Amino acid sequence: MFLLGHIRLLSVTPVWTLRLVFPKALQRVVPDYERAVREELESPLPPTTINDLRWYFFHRRRGTDVRAMSGPLHDRFTQCANTFAGPRFALLYRRWLGDEDAPFTPPSSRVTEAFVSSRASLECIVLPHTYEHLSPLMNHRRLWRRHDTADAKEGAGALRSLNPPLNPAP
């Protein structure tokens, strides 16, 4: 979704690198992400595939009983289900549920050309350390609740900090 939201920016930027950063725990999915990005940006879907996807998505949303389908329809549905089983198509289906035309709008040809001409690159980095101990610093919702609780329990003049155990009261 990030890529799709930034297609217009990427299409006018002369040289760029898309850098994906993963924690060690997700190291095994890096090739999946690389493949998904390359599929999305380097190989737009041809019209025949889009036609099959629309048909398959319609029947999937409708909950069509595959067992009730006759020979050629059953074969087409089975073939589509096998072909469109990957993560790229799972995302397309979720987007299609919200707007039936949005997932089939091809990315800018400039983005595709940038990858082909090596003006664009993809870099995947696996972090050498875990940074989970820093996650409370980034949880804004939790911080706001803590501020509200401090106000309610200790009054407006209460000392507030991001990490109270590390900042003991004087």
Question: Would you give an account of this structure?
Answer:
The chain has 9 helices and 2 strands. It is about 55% helix and about 10% strand. It starts with a helix and ends in a 16-residue tail after the last helix. The protein is mainly alpha-helical. It has a two-stranded parallel ribbon.
Briefly say what this structure is:
This protein has 170 residues and is mainly α.
For this entry, give a set of tags.
mainly alpha; 170 residues; 8% strand; globular
| Mean of all residue-level pLDDT scores | 77
Helix content estimate: 40-55%
Q: How many individual domains?
A: 2
Overall shape: globular
**Roughly how many Å apart are the termini?**
47 Å
Q: Taking strands numbered 1, 2, ... along the chain, how are they ordered across the largest sheet? A: 1-2
Structural class: mainly alpha
Radius of gyration: 24 Å
Instruction: Tally the beta strands.
Output: 2
The fraction of residues in strands falls at 5-15%
H/E series: HHEHHHHHEHH
* Count of alpha and pi helical runs: 9
Largest sheet: 2 strands, parallel
Residue stretches low in confidence (pLDDT < 50, at least 5 long) are: 142-152, 156-163
Please render the helix and strand layout as text.
Blueprint (H helix, E strand, L loop, with lengths): L1 H4 L1 H6 L3 E7 L7 H13 L4 H16 L8 H13 L3 H12 L10 H8 L3 E7 L8 H4 L1 H15 L16
Parallel strand pairs: 1-2
